[in-house]
Amino acid sequence: TWLVALLVLAVGVHTVAFLGYWAGDNAIVLVRWYNQIIADGFSRPIGNYSPPYLYLLGALSALDGLMPDMALIKALSVLGATWVAFASYRLLKQVTAFPELGLAVLLLPSVVMNASALGQADTFWVAPCILALAAAIRRDHLWVAIWSGVAFAFKAQAIFFAPFVILLFWTRRVPAFLWAVPPAVYVLTCIPAWVAGWPASDLATVYFRQAQWQPEDYAFVSNSASWWTWFGLAAAGVAIRYFWLGFATAVLGTLAYLRFVAVDTDRHLMIAAVLSAAGLPFLLPGMHERFFILADVLAFLYAVAFPSRRSVLAAASMQVASAFPVIVFAFKLEPAQAIAPAFAIVTMVLFLKELTQDEPAPAKA
């Protein structure tokens, strides 16, 4: 009964967000890409996304005309949210007797906003990262590599999960060929577009162009839970000149992470995944409002698997850090996003405390 109630509530919340918010940037960008695919296929470059999500946009053409283009794109994003819920169920099935609670990710404000309100594509890289973590828990390292590659093929933001994968592979001394699997998966996903006519040189530089993006009418530093949001609000021009500092601190932070974070238990694996997904974007500049969604979903799943006052507080704090900047962006409430980095800091401190505590029992029936 409670599961039916949860699903009914999720359908209601997503319906309100789906029908009640007009995602203007998608009307300008994704709808244009969708119509370009219908007209020309993949014979020439399409926007600044890698091919896998664009293949899904192309598949939507089978439904073209049944509903407005924006509604089709939002429906695709809702499908991605459903994949996140399925992946969450698969993960929790290995660590708790209550895997159905994974479906509650559909009620997270970050997921509702990303999928049904904004019609974004982030759920398509979040779901494979969750499946990679599930594979790590069952020690299936080939699938860790495959799912990590799928995530990166959908969005460059999957790089936030990379420190976790590196730590896992290094600690467990996996076979050398597995390190090559994620980039190989990315290359394989690009081949259909290349065969259709998309130049290989353009496909190879999609993510480099994304990293260099700056809007024409203002200086973008960050509007997320990254500490660079504070820097940008204080002195955007100076912050852009010192972007290199963010990459340097990200390298140092990753080295510290690899040195001090443990992955010797299921609980530590989940904590390590959260710290990777939250810590790297916190240190990097150029972080958009949606980039902490993996961290907040993983924090929620950890609280379900290992409930305590601290884990629940950490999950709630991470949700504020992740979802609030999205709400600020959607409803033009700037500069209210300035509170988000503080919540990210609180979350990471709480998870570091979780890492050092004695091993508790997971939530079992």
Task: Spell out the blueprint of helices and strands.
Elements: H1 2-20, H2 24-28, H3 30-40, H4 51-59, H5 69-92, H6 109-117, H7 123-137, H8 141-154, H9 162-172, H10 181-196, H11 200-204, H12 206-211, H13 228-241, H14 243-260, H15 266-283, H16 293-305, H17 309-331, H18 340-356
Helix pairs in contact: 1-6, 5-6, 5-7, 6-17, 7-8, 8-10, 9-15, 14-15, 15-16, 15-18, 16-17, 17-18
Q: Rg from C-alpha positions?
A: 20 Å
Helix percent reads: 55-70%
Order of helices and strands: HHHHHHHHHHHHHHHHHH
Q: Assess the beta-strand content as a share of residues.
A: under 5%
Largest sheet: none
Low-confidence stretches: none
Overall shape: it is globular
Given helix and strand content, the structural type is mainly alpha
Number of separate strands: 0
Question: Taking all residues together, what is the mean pLDDT?
Answer: 94
Cα end-to-end separation? 18 Å
Count of DSSP H/I helices: 18
Question: What can you see in these coordinates?
Answer:
The chain is mainly α. It has helices spanning 2-20, 24-28, 30-40, 51-59, 69-92, 109-117, 123-137, 141-154, 162-172, 181-196, 200-204, 206-211, 228-241, 243-260, 266-283, 293-305, 309-331, 340-356. It is globular, with a radius of gyration of 20 Å. The mean pLDDT is 94.
In short:
With 365 residues, the protein is mainly alpha-helical. It contains 18 helices and no strands. The protein starts with a helix and ends in a 9-residue tail after the last helix.
